[in-house]
Prior knowledge:
Layout: E1 3-13, H1 15-32, E2 39-44, H2 48-63, E3 69-72, E4 103-111, H3 115-127, E5 132-140, E6 152-156, E7 163-168, E8 177-186
Parallel strand pairs: 2-3, 2-4, 4-5, 5-6
Antiparallel strand pairs: 1-8, 7-8
Helix pairs in contact: 1-2
Amino acid sequence: MSMTKLVEKTILMDSEGIRRALTRISHEIVEKNKGVEHVVLVGIRTRGVPIAERIAQNIEQIEGKRPPVGVLDITLYRDDLSTLSYQPIVRPTELPTDITGKVIVLVDDVLYTGRTIRAALDAIIDMGRPKSIQLAVLIDRGHRELPIRADFVGKNVPTSSREVVSVQISTVDDAEKVVLREVEKSE
């Protein structure tokens, strides 16, 4: 019987690298939207939420105005819900304002197959009709299964399917870094 375990391969970003990437993304969001008058940041649980909060703080320092930040739980929108063996824990979605006519910037930690973002799009559309939806991710690791791309990317990291990108944020985890791990099979 073979066992699999994840082995740390390399650190892709340290806390300073994460800070710089989020600062750049914040500037890009302001520039693309010519300010943040109608922008609402929506973090996808779990790590998208503190990342969205940090982007909002950065934008407040840049523009003097903090965009509202919402929290999106996509658990019930996942297309793999029936294949999950556990009972999913559904946490509340909290949007700070009516999203109709707003520019929604979805925020997540890692963009991989695109299925999480597809679920997030479904959830957002069920709550209103935004003017547009943009996507900001800390890491884009490729391997898309759906035609989804990020508007704002902290770092592109080509990966193999045997690798796992793990984002650790200090407000959620005990560390602040992005780690590339590899699946190691043992007999």
